[in-house]
Amino acid sequence: MAVGIFDSGLGGLTVLDAVQKRLPDVPFVYLGDSANAPYGVRTPEDIYNLTTAAVQRLFDEGCDLVILACNTASAAALRKMQENWIPKDKRVLGVFVPLIESLTERQWGDNSPPREVAVKHVALFATPATVSSRAFQRELAFRAIGVDVEAQACGGVVDAIEDGDYVLAEALVRSHVDALKRKMPNPDAAILGCTHYPLMAEAFQEALGPDTRVLSQANLVAESLADYLGRRPEMIGKGTEAAFLTTGDPKKVSSRATQFLRREITFTAA
User: Of 108, 115, 132, 143, which sees the most CB atoms within 10 A?
Assistant: First the structure.
């Protein structure tokens, strides 16, 4: 009855932590592709190939449902995977939609025409690949009209977080927020469009100021997954064991993951 969680590296642990707390009886298999991280600077073809290989690995672990806890993979690969690759008895879900539903105050599955919403000016902080895909704007346009989105590609932030260099990560956050505010001085809301970025949420909020609502994904994804499994309990897969898998150095990744979640995490080779 395992559910798969995939990320290009360790950022998806923010989602894993939230879904484990929300669904304590469900075993989760986490796979981080640290050997190939970060995805945010790769081509769409690379991202698609790496993501499908990782998801197949999770299917092989007995997971019928996989969450792409990686905005870059969700933006650059998910639609093509759903159209061409995912077996009929499997499901792969991304992390954009729960966040957009919260932003636009819609319930899951509300397919009514797009309408005006309270938020008018939205800042999107994401990896270069996510920004260039325009997937966030596309999904938002299905649900809302009259929302101005200004996207800022946050180069270097994921690398700094993965390396444990939070001083550099905070400096980069301030620089990227300054660049965004030159284009959109007063955003109503800011989307942290990468699952690494919640670790820098305080830095984003401080740089943006108190009048901007900062939205990150972990708890929203956890609630969305709980709702989905409540309606589709058959999608809890055959696997029964929780696990942490990595394509990188298990010892190094375990050490970093333990710092991330502030509890002992042991990865094994994928």
Answer: 143
